[in-house]
């Protein structure tokens, strides 16, 4: 719909050695994918991919100079690994750039508690709230 020009890029690949983005050969805002069947795997050899990259200007490639933030998302049971975060930081220009963020779900989601995610029985079809 946006012709690959969304400001959000899911798991875009960056080459570890030089930090260059792995771009599709036809569309410079589209991440390169090895497979159409499994779009995120396998990853091109020598690449790493943050879970989400937010770009400043959506009609430009997701090169580091156009990245607002690279976000690593961790769900319960998925652990933060120091080396992974150091690799993302190195690609995004080092600690002075402060472009790498960690989002832990549900802990970092404000206003969300385990009890708040349960559906209220009164909203289910065919059930009424007792008076």
Output the radius of gyration.
19 Å
Strand content: 15-25%
Q: How would you classify the helix and strand content by structural class? A: mainly beta
Average of pLDDT: 82
Q: Distance between the terminal alpha carbons, to the nearest Å?
A: 47 Å
Largest sheet, spatial ordering of strands = 1-4-5-6
Describe the global form. Answer: globular
Spans of at least 5 consecutive residues whose pLDDT stays below 50 are 120-131
| Major beta-sheet overview | 4 strands, mixed
The total strand number stands at 6
Helix content: under 10%
Query: With helices defined by DSSP (H or I, 4 residues minimum), what is the helix count?
Result: 1
Helix-strand string:
EEEEEHE
Explained architecture:
Helix content is 8%, strand content 18%. It is mainly beta and 131 residues long. The strands form 2 sheets. Strands 1-4-5-6 form a 4-stranded mixed beta sheet, covered by helices on one side. Strands 2-3 form a two-stranded antiparallel ribbon.
Topology:
Elements: E1 8-10, E2 14-15, E3 47-48, E4 52-55, E5 67-74, H1 82-91, E6 100-104
Parallel strand pairs: 5-6
Antiparallel strand pairs: 1-4, 2-3, 4-5
Features:
two-stranded antiparallel ribbon, 131 residues, mainly beta
Please outline what is shown here.
With 131 residues, the chain is mainly beta. Helices cover 8% and strands 18% of the residues.
